[in-house]
Amino acid sequence: MTKIKQLLIVVTLLVSVFANAGRHDEKEKATGAIDAKTFEKLMEAQELTEADKHTEALAVLDVLKNRGKVTGYGKSQMWNFYAFIYASKEDYTNAVNAYMEVINIEETPAALALQAKYTIAQLNFQLEKYDACIKYMNEWLSATPKATPTAHIMLAQAHYQQKRYAKALSHVDTAVELENKAGRKVKETWLRLKSALYYEKGDFKKTAETYEQLVALYPKTTYLKQLAGMYGELGQDMRRLAIYDSIYLNGELPKGKDVLNLAYMFLGQDAPYKAAKLMEKGMNDGKIEKSQKNIETLGNTWAQANQHDKAIPVLEQAAKLSSKGALFARLAGVYFDAGEYTKAANATMKASEKGGLKNPGNNYLLMGMSYSNLKKHHKALQAFRSAKQTKKILKDARAWEQHTLREIKLIEDLAKSKIELEEKTKKTLESKENNKEA
User: Fold this and answer.
1) Which of 163, 220, 223, 279 is most buried per CB count within 10 Å?
2) Which helix (H) or strand (E) segment is 135 a member of?
3) How far is CA 163 from each of CA 97, 135, 275, rounded to the nearest angstrom?
4) Which H, E and C letters describe 189-240, residue by residue?
5) How does pLDDT run across 121-175, given as a tens digit for each residue?
6) For the segment 342-387, what is each residue's pLDDT rounded down to a tens digit?
7) What CATH number should be reported for the domain whose range is 1-141?
8) What number of CA atoms fall less than 13 Å from residue 144's CA on the CB side?
9) SS3 (DSSP) at 324
10) How sure is the predictor about 18, in pLDDT bands with cuts at 50, 70 and 90?
């Protein structure tokens, strides 16, 4: 048990003991007198208890009990002191038994019996006897003229432990309502319990609403993250992104994995430039590991943002770290988009040499397109014919092959025409020279 819970129980017990002791004359009229000897022993037990001499205090009460002469209101107070001392020693089982004695004595005043039931409920909660806790707390609620929010919260916690979430929620709502009516700030733990209950029910909308209240009353990064998680469950990705971005901008996202996660969120919302900036800064700050995967992702992200001057050196670095050709294939695509066809062609060749490509046909197609732009048509034609081996791109590869064949034929025709023209021109000149001589 935590020290706070212990203190709450002890305070409750003290209120019960001393409040009733202070009304001694009033109870004496209603239920009978406490003889001087009994009163003296009760006060002695009280003083010993205040001095933390619990064993000695119990011994005093045992003497009083063994006399067998304590009756009525005096007997109620004796068992009340027993209960208080046992609870102070954290002997909650004996404390509950002592309080049961209090409520079973016919002469026990109604107020004292009611207070005993309330404390029995508290103690049973600590003993994890939740049904007993619920029983006595409900009896207390039915008899008290003014219910307290704390009583409803205890009932909510007990029902929660028994997985009776609907009943637990009902009591939490009542507690929150009573607290609001009293003009008090709703306790943080109450709202946390409420959010847990809605989450257990799978009601993510209500869970998110509760976290919104928590953030408003108790602004903490933990609650913001949990709220963002609920927005994710609800498919409200922009809200989720906005929360994580605000946490990052506030300097409260220290872990590299969280920064990387935020970068992926920006990618998911088609904001690659922002994602790349986050990743680059995270790597420079030492928060994000410069692993092959992360470097590759950064390069691809710069490429998506059409920042080829930034994407190329990063992808070059990633490609050198890789034993497979996939990164060279990706790098070739970036080179091609940047208009660097020679580098693109060389990268596709390296990709093919390293192997391990999921789509080798695409690599050959890009190789052919690169050579085509370099006017190296025969190499392009060879690449397109290799690309035709992949069914998915057969149509595209065949189209490029036909285009290349036309280009080759056109070049050959132009070359042939040039030769023919040169020969014709030569013959014409020779003929003119012969005529001149003649």
Assistant:
1) 279
2) helix 130-143
3) 27, 16, 42
4) HHHHHHHHHHHHCCCHHHHHHHHHHHHHHCCCHHHHHHHHHHHHHCCCHHHH
5) 999 999 999 999 999 999 999 998 888 999 999 999 999 999 999 999 999 999 9
6) 999 999 999 999 888 888 999 999 999 999 999 999 999 999 999 9
7) 1.25.40
8) 19
9) coil
10) very low
